[in-house]
Amino acid sequence: MEFQTKITLENIELLVSRFYEKAMFDKEIGHFFILELGDDLTNEDWIEHISRLVDFWGTIFLEKTLYKSNPYGPHFTIIGLEEEHFQQWMKLFNETADEIYVSEIANKFKEEGLHYSKDFMHRINEDRKLQNLNQLKSRISWEG
Fold it and tell me: For residue 112, what are the domain limits?
């Protein structure tokens, strides 16, 4: 396959699908995906997830409003998600972008991926602090 020189929905779908083919069976992060979506990329949950991610990246790079959801919310319920998991996510995502796009475009995906990865971890950490604070407040009011 020759490197893509322009971003299209078709090659975004290739990027997302190929990334998840790697991520799903990765020893560090694969279990998160399998627990949530199963181990068959052709099942309905995976098809919907991949489509949603294609819309997400399409919205970012194609200046079309395709994605109308919250990219952060569903990740707050994932137990055990830590920064090192996002680092592995980035490693696989970067590798995949480099396999599909010329370096100029691959770098754009890598920059946006890094931005969202950092933002995800920040928001997850803030949510955990808030949950801990709420649990503490609940315990104090119960004991008081």
Answer: 9-143
Provide the whole-model pTM.
0.82
Q: Report the length, in residues, of the chain.
A: 144
In a domain, 2, yes or no: no
DSSP 8-state class, residue 3? P
In a domain, 139, yes or no: yes
What is the residue-level pLDDT of the chain in tens, covering all 144 positions?
799 999 999 999 999 999 999 999 999 999 999 998 999 999 999 999 999 999 999 999 998 888 877 665 565 566 777 888 889 999 999 999 999 999 999 999 999 999 988 888 888 777 666 665 555 555 555 555
Total number of domains constituting the chain: 1
